[in-house]
Specification:
about 425 residues, alpha/beta, Dihydrodipicolinate Reductase, domain 2, Alpha-Beta Plaits, ten-stranded mixed β-sheet, six-stranded parallel β-sheet, 18 strands, about 40% helix, about 25% strand, elongated
Length: about 425
């Protein structure tokens, strides 16, 4: 019997309760595991009242629930940093396993949580933290152990993918689609966490950590969001046989880790180009396995709750039968932090869009600056824009070092003819 203490009755927490109510008997009959929802905890009496009416034991005091001896596992679905950190550490200290969907907490404080769990011989399961219903965590930890993950590219934030997909399908501006996404519940009232790439950075850091066996500090990886992507950029991408996606990227680079989050021009021949709407996808290259893609709902009540319940079933099978040790995560500590490849040392083909006054000699000045920085040009496209007196100059570079590219773009931006900050987007290699 695995006795569950649940904190959080919101979207995902409510979904977990719903699934457990539907399937607990089935799990016992078909899988031989017994789950019991021993206590449901939320901030207020109002939130727990419906569950109390159903006969569940409820609480508004998470500390008391964790300290009690009638739960075996803490399921933390409240979100945030400080209180969940306190609760999870307390649960581990008292000998209780943990299941969480809190990617932000694990990315920031995993170096405290995982070593403590390893010391105590306890499980910390977090399938729902990355990719919602996609079983990517378990795949990397167990399914791919016959291979080494050499690189991955992932669409890991449904809000951003929805916005970019709508912009491409309907030729709409970013702000218009963002407002629609907020009305439909795909974006928060304050969307910064999603559109500026922070959520993707948390998830990418966790995946990069699992793939590399080193702690990847999400606060040190390069992050660029999608708020500056324009309908014009999307249109140019189409002309070039590409689409724009916000990607989390990981590469093994010898003893170093290349981990970053930024928009990319993705060729239409790449499998990720067909992943649209709120769907997530993780594309991996492994030495023995080769290439593989996992796709699915990256968020939402039931997809995420399904991943939480899967962790609970896995935990119940381990603890009931005593046959599975906790997956080793004690290596996720400060002393084992990854050495990151600086973004300045990465290379790519680049899409550059310069907006200038319609004046003679501007193109010559731009090409000279690029040549002076040893940047080879693959294509140049010049078009008039809706604003009279302005032109867009699009340059596609050959593969070049980021440090050279940044220096050249700064020089172009300093030209008196340039009227807007230049757009820079990498091509997916």
């Amino acid at each position: 019997m695995l006795r569950i203490g649940l904190i959080g009755t919101g979207t995902v927490g409510g979904g977990v309760i719903q699934i457990l109510e539907q399937k607990i008997a089935e799990y016992k009959e078909k899988l031989g595991v017994e789950l019991e929802l021993s206590c449901i905890c939320a901030k207020s009496e109002e939130e727990v009242a419906p569950y109390k009416a159903k006969g569940y034991k409820v609480s508004t005091n998470a500390d008391e629930m964790i300290a009690g001896d009638d739960i075996d596992v803490l399921v933390e679905l409240a979100g945030g940093y400080n209180m969940p950190r306190k609760w999870i550490l307390a649960a581990l200290e008292s000998g209780k396993h943990v299941v969480t969907a809190n990617k932000a907490l694990l990315a920031k404080y995993g170096h405290e949580i995982f070593p403590l769990a390893a010391k105590k011989g306890l499980h910390v399961l977090f399938e729902a933290a990355v990719g919602g219903g996609i079983p990517i965590i378990r795949s990397v930890q167990e399914g791919f152990v016959g291979s080494t993950v050499e690189s991955l590219s992932c669409i890991i934030n449904g809000t951003c993918n929805y916005i970019l997909s709508r912009m491409a399908e309907e030729g709409l501006d970013f702000d218009v689609v963002l407002k629609d996404a907020q009305k439909l519940g795909f974006a928060e009232a304050d969307p910064t966490f999603d559109i500026e790439g922070i959520d993707s950075a948390h998830k990418t850091a966790l995946l990069a950590s699992l793939c590399s066996g080193k702690r990847v500090d999400f606060e040190k990886i390069h992050v660029t969001g999608i708020s500056k992507i324009t309908a014009q950029d999307i249109a140019f991408a189409k002309e070039l046989g590409c689409c724009v996606k916000l990607l989390g990227i990981y590469h093994r680079d010898g003893d170093r880790v290349d981990a970053r989050v930024h928009p990319c021009f993705v060729p239409n021949t790449n499998l990720l180009s067909n992943v649209n709407g709120v769907i997530n996808a993780v594309y991996l290259k492994c030495d023995n396995l080769g290439e593989t893609v996992q796709t699915g709902a990256g968020a939402g009540r039931l997809p995420t709750a399904s991943a939480v319940v899967a962790d609970l079933v896995s935990l119940a099978r381990s603890t009931d039968q005593g046959s599975r040790k906790a997956l080793p995560m004690g290596w996720f500590n400060v002393e084992n932090s990854a050495t990151l490849v600086p973004i300045s040392e990465t290379s790519a083909r680049y899409y550059l869009r310069f907006t200038s006054r319609d004046a003679c000699g501007v193109l010559a000045k731009i090409t000279k600056i690029l040549a002076d920085n040893n940047i080879s040009i693959e294509t140049i496209i010049q078009k008039n824009v809706n604003d009279p007196g302005k032109v867009s100059i699009v340059v596609i570079t050959e593969k070049t070092l980021d440090s050279k590219l940044s220096k050249a773009v700064d020089a172009v931006n300093s030209l008196s003819e340039i009227v807007e900050k230049s757009q820079v987007i990498r091509f997916l290699a």
